Amino acid sequence: MNKVYLDNNATTMIDPEAYEAMLPFLGENFGNPNSLHSYGNATHAALGRAMDQLYAGIGAKDSDDIVVTSCATESNNWVLKGVYFDILKEQKNGKNRIIVSSVEHPAVGATAAFLESLGVEVTRLDVDHNGLVSPQALKSVIGDDVALVSVMNANNETGVIFDIKSMAEIAHAYGALFHTDAVQAVGKIPVNVAESNVDFLSFSAHKFHGPKGVGGLYIKNSRELTPLLHGGEHMGGRRSGTLNVAGIVAMGKALENSVKFLDFERSQVRRLRDKLEDAILEMSDTYVVGDRQVRVPNTILASIKGVEGEAMLWDLNQAGIAASTGSACASESLESNPIMEAIGADAELAHTALRLSLSRFTTEAEIDYAIEVIKKATNRLRAISSSFSYAPSWHKSGL
């Protein structure tokens, strides 16, 4: 049976070079980098090189901080909760509100809801039918009472890219900080923190062919931010916990290689994505969320009318194809896709969501096979559907 992995927005295979780079630190070079003996010192050169790769990979300056975390979920929590303790709790300068988009990853969305339970006012920005949050929408609700705006760089389900540079400018004009969850952007499109002028940026290694269990938080100009984890002087006292040397080294190499392959992402990965997307749209009553020109090159969120997302996943899995109905962090839930609901799809349509996400390791033969299987599965599932009826104009007229 063929095996095809089209769930790269959930996690990616590790880059072979990143894998090789981490192996020495899982074996003979096992020392704690904070130890003063030779075992600890043996890790320092590789750690320094990895940190240089991270700074270069997102365009950070020497005056900035990149703090290594366990994942972007930790980074996101740290920003929102740090701003709570630094500003919101005491309502400094009258600031007691944060703004987030309605389609943030739960690592931001659930943390915002937690702050709301502590008395923080949370404003949620709606998206349009293409899944976009506009800078104008932010401008219409922001005020001097806002401490933080958090809007993702690219959506984890649709791949839609948000104009974070414009939104950061708006936030700063009102004295607010700006954070972006860039998990689905780093390694797929150019990310430059100096150009976008964000104050905080979260990323996670396993989304750009690094290992799981390691990520980072960019902090502009090394500004103060109350730590999420206390206990030691690691990472300059900003984030306690013995460093994951192997993970950091692999993350640095994975990011360096991902940046090298950005042109390949723009050309070849996009070409294969578009080929798969075109094949889906050739079928009747299908829809893909978001203009492909404003999406990261690898992502499709499609709806195939009359086909439950979970049923499609079953057929795909039986054929050796990995995909999803949305965020892996919510994959155990059989509720309708929240992004589909956010763009205005009805409940029935929201249950048909199918997310397909490629990587630079995806081949043309795999896409050809996936197209064949998806078409066969669609025909089979529609044939046994009690609700599907042929309506050839559906996918052209929108939701």
Automatic annotation (TrEMBL):
It is an enzyme of class 2 (transferase). The keyword Lipid metabolism does not apply. Its EC number is 2.8.1.7. The keyword Iron applies. It catalyses: (sulfur carrier)-H + L-cysteine = (sulfur carrier)-SH + L-alanine. It comes from the Bacteria. InterPro entries: Aminotrans_V_dom (IPR000192), Aminotrans_V_PyrdxlP_BS (IPR020578), Cys_deSase_NifS_proteobacteria (IPR017773), Cysteine_dSase (IPR016454), PyrdxlP-dep_Trfase (IPR015424), PyrdxlP-dep_Trfase_major (IPR015421), PyrdxlP-dep_Trfase_small (IPR015422). Residues 4-369 form the Aminotransferase class V domain. This is cysteine desulfurase. The lineage of its organism: Bacteria, Pseudomonadati, Campylobacterota, Epsilonproteobacteria, Campylobacterales.
